[in-house]
Write a structure and sequence with these properties.
single chain, 442 residues, alpha+beta, Outer membrane efflux proteins (OEP), 2 domains, two-stranded parallel sheet, 10 helices
């Protein structure tokens, strides 16, 4: 699916101001949809979790400080100071303070920080990816509303033409120039035109509903969109290759796939850390108090000062055999990395196809617009001539209705080609200018 970003970077209104306005521009619809989208808010929370995880990983380089205290009471037979068992009560108190500093962890923390960095970048790209997807959906529905409004207008014009023809037919019948059956035919055509207009109106309502649901906009009456007045000219022929390489560096789906691949590469290093020894430097200080009933005991303060013990140690943990757990973790990480690389390459191919398709669609839409414009002119002339022929009694009402229907169909196809072309131009402008100028379209 083609992802496009058309959102502006500043707010046009607050929620209170939104409720007061009726006509919305395309950029206002996009801005509102992005600011109220739940998927984006969830992705922002995921980003915050990764930021907290990064702080936790950085703190792994800091020493750990532990304090410990214990109180023990012993009853019954136990060893006394003479190393002889007898019946006595013993009371002992212990205090200790220790610190442990990581010296080497097999590069696990460093690799974890690098993985977190790429995961965070990937999440930021994912947020932009969602924003672009919303922008595309809003833009497509916005243009669909404009198209459906055109179709409604054309349907109403067909009713007006038929009503005018009904008056002319009544006049011709009254003057004996047309049979009365023509009036029944034209009234049947009028009923059909009204049915078409009703269906067009309902389709327009649904297109409004689709846009409002994407925007998460509720209880908002008299909502309307602003018309886009643009002169339709064929875009300068763009080189697909240059557009592709320009977009390759900026499209969020490409960035997301790239950063995900880099993150998975760090997972291999994290798994390999299982082969390295773990080295910690530690130190501590402790003291205690010992009291035995039935004997002379030194005071608490004296024992606490006299029993102080200091220690300094290095702990080295060497992995010898872990039932091939580390080896299998490395193999799994390599497979995951290969999958991520393939996803990255696939996203690049998809981007090229999307640009290629958008370019072809724009050319095709413009050519169709030119052809439908010629068809409209031809059908308008044919309709004028059919009116004159019918008024002079040289054709039947059936022939006139058929030509009028062809005119309505030509006008509808022209409008469809017009708004299809405008939408494709927005997409091509995105690839051509957003990535170069770093600013959204409007």
């Amino acid at each position: 699916m083609l992802i496009i970003s058309l959102a502006t970077y500043f707010s046009f209104f607050m929620d209170e101001e939104v409720k007061a306005q009726n006509t919305w521009t395309l950029e206002q619809c996009i801005e509102y949809a992005i600011s109220h989208n739940m998927d984006i808010k969830q992705s922002m929370n995921e980003k915050k979790i990764l930021q907290i995880e990064r702080n936790s990983l950085k703190n792994n380089f800091l020493p750990c400080l532990y304090g410990e205290s214990s109180q023990k009471y012993g009853f019954g037979r136990s060893l006394n100071r003479d190393n002889v068992y007898d019946d006595t009560n013993i009371n002992s108190t212990m205090f200790s303070l220790s610190i442990e500093v990581p010296i080497f962890d097999g590069f696990k923390t460093a690799a974890s920080l690098a993985k977190n960095k790429y995961s965070l970048l990937a999440q930021e790209s994912n947020i932009q990816f969602i924003e672009n997807d919303i922008s595309l959906r809003v833009t497509s529905n916005y243009f669909q509303i404009l198209l459906n409004k055109e179709i409604c207008r054309i349907a109403q014009e067909q009713i007006v033409l038929t009503e005018e023809q009904e008056k002319k037919t009544t006049f011709l019948i009254e003057n004996g120039k047309s049979p009365k059956s023509d009036l029944f035919d034209i009234r049947a055509q009028l009923a059909n035109d009204k049915l078409v207009a009703t269906e067009a109106k309902n389709t327009l309502r649904l297109s409004y509903l689709d846009l409002l649901q994407i925007m998460e906009l509720r209880d908002f009456e008299q909502f309307d969109v602003e018309a886009i007045e643009e002169t339709l000219n064929l875009l300068d022929t763009m080189k697909i290759e240059s557009t592709y390489y320009t977009a390759l560096d900026c499209m969020p789906q490409i960035k997301y796939a790239y950063f995900s691949a880099e993150s998975s590469k760090q997972s291999i290093k994290i798994a390999k850390s299982g082969y390295y020894p773990m080295v910690y430097l530690g130190g501590g200080i402790n003291s205690g108090y010992y009291h035995q009933s039935g004997t002379t005991n030194e005071s608490f303060n004296y024992q606490m000062r006299n029993n102080i013990q200091n220690s300094l140690y290095i702990t080295v943990s060497i992995p010898l055999f872990d039932r091939f757990s580390t080896r299998n973790k490395i193999k799994t990480a390599k497979v995951e990395h290969n999958k991520a690389v393939l996803t990255y390459e696939n996203e690049k191919m998809k981007l090229y196809k999307e640009i290629e398709q958008a370019h072809l669609d724009a050319i095709s839409a413009f050519e169709k617009y030119k052809m439908t414009s010629d068809a409209v002119k031809a059908n308008q002339e044919a309709h004028r001539y059919a009116q004159e022929k019918y008024a002079s009694g040289k054709s039947s009402i059936y022939e006139y209705n058929e030509i009028k229907m062809k005119l309505g169909d030509a006008l509808s196809q022209q409008s469809q080609a017009k708004y299809t072309y405008l939408l494709k131009c927005k997409i091509l402008d995105f690839y051509s200018f957003f990535t170069l100028l770093g600013k959204p379209l409007n």
